[in-house]
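Morning, I've got a small favour to ask if you have a moment. Here's the protein in full, and shout if anything looks odd to you:
***
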Amino acid sequence: MPAITNDWIGPLSSEFKKPYYAELYRFVKEEYHKGKVFPPSDDIFNALHLTPLSKVKVVILGQDPYHNDHQAHGLSFSVPPDVAEKDIPPSLKNIYKELHDDLKIPIPKSGYLKPWADQGVLLLNTVLTVRAHSPQSHRGHGWEQFTDAIISAVNSEDRPIVYMLWGRPAQEKSAMLTNSRHLVLKAPHPSPLSANRGFFGCRHFSKCNLFLSENGVDPIDWAIE
C-alpha cells in the first residue's frame, strides 16, 4: 500500500502500529498477489492524497470500491476520466440527477470527481479495496477500523464540515460524529434500488453550500466538466 505523506499521517500514524493493521496489510497484499483487486494498489489512498485533512470541507461516504474493471480509482463514487459517458455507474448517474434537480447544474459527461476532491470533498469509502467482480469481498478485514480513524480525525476538526451519509452503512457512522460545529446530512443510497426512497429530493448539495456559506467557508463548485 502506498505511503501517506500529507497531514493525515499525524492522526493515522498510530493505526499503522496496531495488530489489526498488520493483519489487514497481510490480507490485502495476499489478495493483490492472488488475483485482480480494485482499485490499483497505488490508488488505495487517493482520497487522502488528494484531500488533506486541513482542507476537508465535506465528507461523502461510500461503501466499498466499484468492483468492475476500470472503474475504481480510490475516490468514492468516482471513475477515471477516460470512462465513457455511457459507462458511468448508475449510482453516480443518480447523484448527477439529484445535483441537477437541486442546483440546476448540467449533468456531466465525465464521472471523474477529482475536481470535488481538490476543493475539499473527502470522497471516502468505508472499505478501501475489493476483489474483482465480488462486491463487499474485503469487508470485515480491518478497513472499517482504519476508516473509522479517518472519520474520527475529521470529527476532531474545530471548524465547519459537512457529512453526506447516503445509505445505512454510511449512516451507521453518525454515532461517531459528535462535533457541534459540523452538519450531518442523511439520505438513502443513490443506488437505483433505493434512490427513489428519498435520495432524490434530499437537496444535500444546496444544503451543504448554504451551511458552508453561512459559516464563512467558500462553497463547493459542484460542476464537473
User: Anything to note?
Assistant: The chain is about 30% helix and 10% strand. The longest strand covers residues 58-62. The two ends are 31 Å apart (CA to CA). Helices lie at 9-12, 19-34, 46-50, 90-103, 114-118, 143-155, 168-171, 204-214.
